[in-house]
Write a structure and sequence with these properties.
single chain, alpha+beta, two-stranded antiparallel sheet, 6 strands, globular
Length: about 190
């Protein structure tokens, strides 16, 4: 990452969504998550530290919800959503994203409930990211030079504080808070 440097007199500024996938799931299932750190909120429920919480959360979301996990109301609702998604997909022959895009089951190798949920989550993430980029463009704001899953990388100089605040507002406009990091090369953000 040190090979990637911004133009002279500029810095890289990266906006990273807090617990993006968990928050997307919250939207999909209609569960209000805290605006504070979701991973810390879950850590408190698990009775573990922050780092262990992140690992456990991703294991649950990508590997399946166990009986023990269902004791946490959020994951109980996630599990019910996954089962309902699978039932609808088997009945319809496809899954449908929040934007109405359909993904036929025959496009998915060996589909199962968890895999369908993961496909929906990835597709929804992409749709939200595209909407954020479109909104930046519509507001004549800078576009990211790179986006990866849950983060957007920009080039800014010190004089663009107001623009940076507007970009942050747009990125958070779908209800997903971001945190910012900056540096003189890509390894420092």
């Amino acid at each position: 990452r040190t090979a990637f440097i911004p133009p002279e007199d500029s810095l890289f500024l990266q906006f990273d969504y807090d617990a993006y996938h968990v928050r997307i799931i919250g939207k999909l299932i209609g569960y209000d998550l805290p605006q504070t750190s979701v991973h810390q909120w879950l850590a408190d429920q698990y009775g573990v530290d922050y780092d262990e919480s992140k690992g456990r959360t991703f294991r649950i979301l990508y590997g399946g919800v166990s009986d023990e996990d269902r004791k946490i109301p959020f994951f109980d609702k996630v599990d019910k959503f996954i089962k309902s998604l699978n039932d609808k997909a088997l009945q319809n022959g496809y899954i449908e994203t929040p934007k109405g895009r359909t993904i036929p089951l025959d496009w998915i190798e060996q589909p199962n409930a968890q895999k369908l949920f993961n496909y929906l989550l990835q597709a929804t993430e992409t749709e939200f990211n595209i909407e954020a980029i479109k909104k930046l463009k519509e507001n004549d704001l800078p576009l990211p030079i790179l986006y990866t899953y849950d983060s957007f990388l920009f080039e800014f100089d010190d004089s663009e504080v107001d623009t940076i605040k507007k970009v942050k507002t747009v990125l958070e406009s779908f209800g997903f808070p971001v945190k910012a990091d900056w540096g003189s090369d890509y390894s420092k953000v």
